[in-house]
Amino acid sequence: MNRPLYETGADLAREKAVIDRICKAGQRAEKLPIHNHLDFAIFNGDTLAALVEIRCRNNFMDKYPTFFCNLSKVMAARQLSEACNTPAYLFVQWSDRLGYINFDAPYTVQYGGRNQMRDWQDKGLLAHFEIGLFKGVGNE
Prior knowledge:
The chain is of the alpha+beta class. It contains 2 helices and 9 strands, in the order αββββαβββββ. The chain has one domain (9-136): 3-Layer(aba) Sandwich (Trna Endonuclease, Chain: A, domain 1). A 6-stranded mixed sheet has the order 1-2-3-5-6-9. The protein has a 3-stranded antiparallel sheet with strand order 4-8-7. The mean pLDDT is 90.
């Protein structure tokens, strides 16, 4: 049995709004397939400029001291970044601001995840990034 995907059409629309906001004039974003582990590749012409993961949250940025994502996501981002010789970024749209970090930022590891009934696989090792490491986008 396949595991459920938690990404909805509304999630994809929010993700698109963020990528449209962060792409500069002359850049284009290509949605990556799930096996690439990240959401987008940004190109300047034919040159790969950045790899991007986007997360959207319904809370203020300072509600929690860290932002976490699955450790395997961080490891995949770092590996792709090295293989492509290009930076990989994590962008987070909170209720009050948009921020980002490079996936090569320091983190601590804890165990946790979603508390979804009947989906024991949605818990595991998580990389926690200090909120203070995130840089604002635009005037934020």
